[in-house]
Amino acid sequence: MQLAIHGGMPYRTRPFPTCANASGRWLGEEEKRLLAEVIDSGALGRNDGSKVVALERAWAEMLGFGASAQPNGGAPLAAQAVTSGTAALHTAVASLNLEPGDEVVTTTITDMGTVIAILACNLVPTFADVDPRTGNITAETIAAQISPKTRAIIVVHLFGQMADMPPILALARQHGLYVIEDCAQAHLAAYNGRLAGTLGDLGCFSFQQSKQMTTGDGGLVVTCNEALATRARLFTDKGWPRGIPGLRGHLLFGMNYRMTELQGAVGLAQAGKLTEIVAQRRRTAGLLRQLMADIPGLIPPHIIPGADHSWWMFPFTIDQARLGVSPQAFGQAIKAEGLPFGVGYIPNPVFEYDVIRDRKTFGASGIPWTLPQARPGIIYDRRDYPGTLRFLDEMFVMSWNEGLTEADVHDIAGALAKVARYYRND
User: Fold this and answer.
1) With 60 as the cut, is the pLDDT of residue 262 above it?
2) Which of 59, 252, 286, 377 is deepest in the core (most CB within 10 A)?
């Protein structure tokens, strides 16, 4: 049997559903109806409308915080909608009110938005290595990065699987550190029954186009800490305490991260579908894991005990010794069969991006690393991150979405089996 890269026909020629368009997104009449209500009202900003507040309430209730979100003042919000996942993270970090030069531990494998939130607050990022099976940081790797300047940890729940949180939370308590959960990829993921975003001091979500639910761009911060909730609400609205009649004061430095009513309308409709969206992703991803387990030479995604994955991406690895092929060569072969898998997720550890490696932050100042209060001599050496390098060299990833059907999954498994058989030389 010949592979497509050797002149044979690809196993699959039709494109798979994608989250980049309607083929992989559950967008429809409910979104249109709520958008029409906003247009008909003429109130497109959150402070004159109702949809963003309704979205905040829906998320607070969905995560178990109760209906505590209040419009424009009143009790501190358990959920605060913002313009993006990056804005959510910036809001969360800013709400901690840390001192410039303080340090925040996070992961080597994440979107740049996670690190932007740290740098934007003039804080110094330090990076923990990851478990190469999941791409998530662990209590052990975090502990290796804690210094006297460390004040917080941002835990990224990569691809929809939560990190092993109990030991991380215990470590944070031991050192008096805040914990922020970056749940941008982990809507409704759970660990021992606790939903992502509810275990740390704050949780941050993204509603960008590719996420489990979308508003195009958008995000949300959750917390049950009243002081942090108050600061988060103020930070997203330029420090303006709108709940006090007649006061146009600004109580703290903040941004304008207000979500619009148009985003809120789409988000409210999507939130009503999210449970079934995630259930559909779990059904199809679970089927692929089952089929993959029967293909010699393939290693299905590792799920830690107690974790309930919500499948933003589907990862897997190969047994290189069994197949006698490198991940790169295997990746080229499955692409030739029509499968949209890539190897490694991001090209390098995040600390090797130009902005961090060359300190391209605030002019030529090198801030925050050069601040007098910062710990001197911080360097990021890839040799200190073997788990990260292994993950980026060996992990296959495919964006997952609710548009994928059982037939699509059988095609994926069939193409993987074809390539694996070829290299096993069965």
Assistant:
1) yes
2) 59
Tell the burial category of 297 from Cβ atoms under 10 Å away from its Cβ (0-12, 13-18, 19+). buried
Q: Give the Cα separation of 108 and 205 in Å (integer).
A: 19
Q: Where in the sequence is the domain holding 9, given as residue range(s)?
A: 4-26+273-345+389-424
77: confidence class by pLDDT, cuts 50, 70, 90: low
Q: Which residue type is seen at 423?
A: Y
Residues 6 or more apart in contact with residue 194 via CB below 8 angstroms: 165
Looking at the 3D structure of the chain, how many domains does it have?
Answer: 1
What's the CA gap between 144 and 386, in Å, rounded?
14
CB-facing half-sphere around the CA of 39: CA atoms within 13 A: 7
* Banded model confidence at residue 249, pLDDT cuts 50, 70, 90: confident
Q: What is the value of pTM for the model shown?
A: 0.95
Pairing of strands 313-318, 342-343: unpaired
Kindly state whether residue 337 falls inside one of the protein's structural domains.
yes
Give the tokens for residue 20: 């980049």
Hey, is 342 helix, strand or coil? strand
Task: Confirm whether 204 is domain-assigned.
Answer: no
